[in-house]
Design brief:
Elements lengths: L1 H12 L2 E3 L9 E5 L8 E4 L5 E4 L9 H13 L6 E3 L5 H4 L2 H7 L4 E4 L8 H14 L3 E4 L5 E2 L5 E7 L2 E2 L9 E2 L20 H4 L3 E6 L2 E5 L5 H8 L2 E2 L6 E3 L11 H7 L3 E4 L9 H8 L6 E6 L5 H4 L6 E3 L24 E5 L5 E5 L4 E5 L4
Parallel strand pairs: 4-5, 5-6, 6-7, 13-15, 15-16, 16-17, 17-18
Antiparallel strand pairs: 1-21, 2-3, 2-19, 3-4, 8-9, 9-10, 9-12, 11-14, 12-13, 19-20, 20-21
Helix pairs in contact: 2-4
Length: 363
């Protein structure tokens, strides 16, 4: 009874809606797919053209490819028109082979062949290139546009380079650069991970609606992109960088973007760092944070209410996993769905509950 009363209170006080109450129309949609601390986000244009950013982990009997397929079917698409691989870490590129067995992939986009000296990254890249084969392929550069009918999709970082010319109408001084502190020794050994720093990052716009997806672009590269001027302007929804890890998501990026909502594709024990919750909590104008998982590192002090969390199961260790492996969930999972209209308004839906919240266009 108490949980029911809490749910009813949320419905009336927070503007949450049932899925049946969401207005229909020509919408730009995104499915933030749970791949347990990896990355896979499916964007679908109002015309039905698809762009998938990353494909999750390898292994687990094709678990992540199956979850992407389920989202594609829900969206009514039968192919991936554009696949963007942000970088060659296994939690981003590992699921490509299994995905290609389930859905045709028409166009591959990545940052090119530079993988440095990391042997695991090289091996992942080689497996990915074997799947890519001779199909259409683009090595992305900052400033490039990805041609999708009805959308404006811009590359803002790729291969270690960042956008140097502000987008049209943007380029004001970023006041959050003055307090920026680079990550250094004693904070994290991965703060300067070169693979993360090569991530392909995108800004996507549909009419007045704008969102960004950064891959794992790291803290110090965010400074290169956003300082001394903000070349991107405001966004409506921030798809939280790097699973919510504390090696990304600086105030120089997040606060300058002034998102009204944020969606974090974290795992139970990966991402969802306390620092990330704190920076988001202090972000000017942020109304809500939505999470793919309850964050064990964040604890009850920082996680949002259950209505804003798609997956509550912390998982179990998969059969055959090595000792000390992080728990994984092998069954079906729930996504968070974003539906945006050209006037800048949008709705976010929790796939677990069907409960959604509508955000009106900016004034």
């Amino acid at each position: 009874m108490r949980r029911l009363l809490v749910a009813l209170l949320l419905l009336f006080s927070s503007g949450l809606l049932s899925s049946a109450q969401i207005q229909s129309g020509r919408l730009f949609e995104a499915y933030v797919i749970d791949v347990e601390g990896g990355e896979a986000t499916l964007f679908v244009s109002p015309a039905g053209e698809s762009l998938l950013v990353d494909a999750g982990w390898p292994g687990f009997d094709g678990r992540d490819a199956d979850r992407i397929l389920a989202a594609a079917r829900h969206a009514g698409i039968n192919q991936i028109d554009h696949l963007v691989i942000t970088h060659y870490h296994g939690d981003h590129v590992g699921g490509v082979a299994a995905l290609a067995e389930r859905l045709p992939i028409r166009h591959f986009i990545d940052h090119g062949a530079d993988v440095g000296e990391d042997e695991r990254e090289r091996a992942q890249h080689e497996r990915y290139v074997a799947v890519r084969g001779e199909r259409r392929w683009t090595a992305a550069k900052p400033g490039d546009a990805i041609p999708i009918t009805g959308l404006d999709v811009r590359v803002i970082a790729a291969g270690g380079a960042v956008l140097r010319t502000p987008l049209a109408g943007q380029g004001v001084a970023n006041p959050f650069c003055a307090s920026f502190q680079p990550h250094g020794p004693g904070i994290t050994s991965r703060a300067g991970d070169p693979g993360d720093g090569r991530s392909v990052s995108l800004l996507l716009a549909y009419g007045k609606f704008r969102t960004v997806i950064m891959g794992d672009l790291n803290w110090n590269k965010e400074y290169d992109l956003m300082c001394p001027v903000n070349p991107l302007g405001d966004v409506d929804v921030y798809l939280v960088s790097h699973h919510g890890s504390d090696t990304s998501g600086s105030a120089a990026l997040v606060h300058a973007l002034r998102p009204r909502a944020a969606i974090m594709n974290n795992g139970p024990q990966k991402g969802g760092a306390v620092q990330t919750f704190q920076i988001l909590g202090a972000s000017p104008g942020l109304v809500d944070l939505w999470q793919n998982h309850y964050s064990i590192p964040g604890g009850d002090q920082h996680n949002r209410a259950e209505a804003f969390i798609a997956n509550l199961d912390s998982g179990t260790v998969a059969p055959g996993s090595s000792s000390g492996a992080q728990p994984v969930h092998m069954g079906p999972a729930h996504w968070i769905k974003l539906s945006a209209s050209a006037d800048g308004g949008f709705t976010i839906t929790n796939g677990r509950t069907g409960i959604a919240k509508r955000y009106a266009p900016r004034d």
